Amino acid sequence: MKWKQQLNGMKAYQPGKPIEEVKKLFGLDEVIKLASNENPFGSSPKVKQFLQADESNHAIYPDGYAQSLRTSLAKFYGVAENELILGNGSDDLIAIITRALLYPGVNTVMADPSFSQYWHNADIEGAEVRRIPLNNGVHDLHAIYEAIDENTSVVWVCNPNNPTGTIVPDEALRDFLAKVPADVFVVLDEAYIEYVNDPSYKDTLHYFREYSNLILLRTFSKAYGLASFRVGYGIAQAEVIAKLDPVRAPFNNTVLSQQAAHIALQDQQYIASCREANEIGKKQYVAFCEKHGLNYFPSQTNFVMFEVKASSNTVFEEMMKRGFIIRSGAALGLEGYIRVTIGTEAQNAKFLQLLEEVLTEQGVLV
Ligand SMILES: Cc1ncc(COP(=O)(O)O)c(C=O)c1O
Q: Whose alpha carbon is nearest atom 3 of ligand 1?
């Protein structure tokens, strides 16, 4: 077989264990997943109403151009329809961008730790990956800029960053965009933008008009509560979209997912209520960390990464036995930390009560 050499030893993405499997494994009646930064409240009730009444013909291929969702996104953001590309989740768009722009001989620059799909896709294409350590959990845009050379094709800025939840200050981002050479693409992955509440984070939409080398990525998987439907989108100048579009699979959003996303987008009141509930939940985690002297990264997302002063994997396992699936920092490049999705107020309270128990057992708390 003539496999790509770079596939040697490569593993598929390791998602957390499914809820049903954890229930069986530990004989639990209830298991709560706070591992993948999904919306604990689900999606707008209007989506459920639509799904219950849906009578679409499932034998027919979806609209490959996702016209009605495209029109509603264009209106919502005040952009042209040809300034949008739809993906099967933003994962799909990361793969499309990588496939279009990365190959052996070019390099790509990203923060470390950041979202794993940037380097995973780049590795498959055989491009050189340059990982630049975070500075206090935040992208070091100066060092990222320094790592760019004449062979750099794409720079990834995850803002807010997964797994730390931090944002790059607007001023630093503006200076960075002004400096990056015009033939180097900057992908600004804003999967969690709906949760950002820091007033210093300016709306980044206007940047794509200024910079023809900028692509914004957003998703319906997080605040919109539609992760299972797999809908993400990119915003960039029309010439960029025209180059990326041929790389996209022909029918990469299903009929139901296009309609669900279209309906969810209209219900901004629901998004505002989720953002408010998220802030309440975030305070529960911050209060816990401050009470116990545990370091945490200031999160602008629906998850918190914080120190446990014990083995990340042990805490992960112990919490799983108690019915909570989270992410071990060891798997995300931050040993001694855990990443927890902010749940409902009751889920957070239960989680923190059990975590206190585990950290006491581990000798961290007395
Ligand atoms: C930063 C970031 N980008 C992209 C994604 C992919 O999201 P999706 O493919 O569900 O849109 C995620 C999911 O966790 C993420 O955290």
A: 191
